[in-house]
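Run: sequence + zinc ion -> complex structure.
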Amino acid sequence: MDLTSLSNEDLLDRVSRLRKIERSSLGVLLEHMAEVERRWARLPMKEPSLFAYCTRALGYSESEAYKRITVARLGAKFPIIIEAIKEGRVHLTTITILSPLFTASNCESLLAQAAGKTKREVQFIAADLSPRPDVPDSIHAGARGDDYDVIDPLSSSRVRFTFTAGARLLKMVDRARDILRHKAPTGRLEDIFGESLDTLLEKKDPERRLKRLEETGRQAPDPADCDPMSRRIPQGVRDAVWRRDGGQCSHQNPDGTRCPERGGLEFDHIVPHALGGPSNNAKNIRLLCRSHNRLAAIRVFGDAVTRRWTRPA
Ligand SMILES: [Zn+2]
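>> structure
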């Protein structure tokens, strides 16, 4: 099928319809899986277990198989879970996280709580219902750990972090521990990382900068005195733009809603600097997230030009 000739509306319409079909077939598949398990002893199976059947015969990865089996079993007990999956209110992952906590009496309220939530948010719901004690700090040398980050809520107020890093970071942690000894005599990693991030945010976080300016009553030098043709946006303009745009991407969607992005924001020249737009006037500067900044650049300069000077997001 040639998708390149589809109109934009048709393309998006198809994707949203396919997603609906995907969700409802997933629900139906889970119901069938539960029935396969119920009949397991009477079926002519080559595989020793449902898990082996899912990975070997159905071609799922281990984690895909684990999630499907967990949710299929739970769905056999509580069919409203499968309905919620068909309607797209919850994901396989969120149900898997909550799976040990479902009971006949909390099933409906737990589903309502998890609806539309991210994995992280659901981990917090689970941790709140079933808190675990803090884990002691440990730094392992030599062992080959997972090479990805884990952020694991233990309760509603405590989180366990696990990550693997280079020897250079260990050196920095040890050094920071020495320097902070008067403030954090026990040298707990929580205190060391807390102090470090506090110092970083004090320097880099525009919100904190604006709060400081408010408290001290100081201001950056008047941007009107700065060279309007310099590409550099003066600090006074940055402060004003951040305040005006509320630390959020200023892109307006066609339906009037605003892009909610608050991370990775960039200062954008509305009339581009290359076309003579001034840097020292807040009216010509706005906050945009990375994707909307790129989109704005494509509108002005065209795709080919932009691809050359923007890195892939
Ligand atoms: Zn945006």
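>> summary
The first helix runs from residue 8 to 39. The pocket of zinc ion is lined by residues 249, 251, 259, 261, 288-289, 291-292 (CB under 6 Å).
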